[in-house]
Amino acid sequence: MTSPAPPSPPPAPGGEPGRFAFVLHPLRIADFARKYPLVRYLPDRFVEAAFRRVRPRLVSHITGIQSPTGARAEGWFIGLPLTPRLLMESPLEFVYPRLIECGRIAEAQGARIVGLGAFTKIVGDRGVTVANNVRIAVTTGNSYTAATAVEGALLAAQRVGIDPANVTAAVIGATGSIGAVASQMLARSVGRLLLVARTPDALDALQARLRSGSRADIAVDTDVKKAVREADVVLTVSSAPDVLIEPDDLRPGAVVCDVARPRNVSRVVYERRNDVLVIDGGVIEVPGEVDFGFDFGFPPRMCEACVAETILLALERRYENFTLGKEISLAQVEEISALARKHGFRLSGFRRFERAISDAEVDRIRHAAHPGRLARV
Predict the structure, then answer these.
(1) Which are the contacts of 13, defined by CB distance < 8 A and separation ≥ 6?
(2) Residue whose C-alpha is closest to residue 200's, from 176, 214, 173, 221
(3) Alpha-carbon gap, residue 171 to 243, rounded angstroms
(4) Smallest Cα–Cα separation from 116: which of 93, 134, 91?
(5) Phi and psi of 195, rounded to 5°?
(6) Whether pLDDT at 8 is above 60
(7) Structural domain spans, the chain
(8) Which of 220, 282, 339, 372 counts the highest number of beta carbons within 10 A?
(9) 129-182 pLDDT, tens per residue?
(10) What does pLDDT average to over the chain?
(11) Burial class (CB in 10 A: 0-12, 13-18, 19+), 124
């Protein structure tokens, strides 16, 4: 969803930096321990109850972002100390004011656009209410997240010897905002596409919409494990707070791009299965001498695609509500991808649980995969 906005001035090399903010929240109780080590010894429910009372706050100042065009950006991380469970289970009358407060903190710092991270962009109306109650632009970052998820999944498939045109791909969470547009992109590239979600009516509607102009045979399923067992390439974008994919669910040689946060794929998969490639979705390298000012689990200069979208819009002075609500258009995905190429943003290779996956490891996975499977591609 893109709302009208006055034209933004073009970024001028050497001029004032574009200014943005981004809302972070803990994905698991262990994330609190990065700043408060004591909490690792306390019961999860106690920690959640304690931090539910804590107001949003400024976490860090982000500096050093510079595009090859000469455009610069600076920003701020705003911390909302609510776990996914609290965000999804608390009344909107509690959650919305906290998100709006994050937006007001961003305004006070001088940000002109604020991005919503992880479950803050899922809860309620996906940013619309926040945008209607702050004086700066809002984006969820989902357009660039979708673009990089599909790009990464197809690139990984090629690296393990899979021809995307002949494979079965499954999208877990296909009826969500990222899932629907990612499915639209995959339908142009793969042989068979499985759309997976909990609601049959929504799945049927998406299937009917995608069939027009698609090269893929498109099917639907509400059974995650069944669909995953049929798939060569799996893209997980579900908002489920729990693990959905375990080691025995995957076929030999499968590629999984896990975009969901918290992750849909069990960490045990890569410990037990040396014949599948699991990658994080949308990990982006940002240009410049970037200092995020806070350890949020990524190597230097790296961030998730939703953060990168917010930065890109600041570099462009595109202070507008770029990605809001449930619907994402293919045009938005293509536009933000073009801006990423312009400003030197790129996928940071393959990563899993914030750890780089070497070419040698990819080669080992390819060779460990069932030979019969590779023979047919």
Answers:
(1) 69, 70, 71
(2) 221
(3) 15
(4) 134
(5) -95, 125
(6) no
(7) 18-143+284-347, 146-282+350-375
(8) 282
(9) 999 999 999 999 999 999 999 999 999 999 998 898 999 999 999 999 999 999
(10) 89
(11) middle
CA distances, 2 to each of 88, 138, 181, 319, 325 (Å):
25, 10, 15, 11, 9
Distance between CA atoms of 40 and 30, rounded to whole angstroms? 6
CATH architecture of 146-282+350-375: 3-Layer(aba) Sandwich (3.40)
Query: Amino acid letter at 213?
Result: G
At which residue do the structure tokens 């994080």 appear?
280
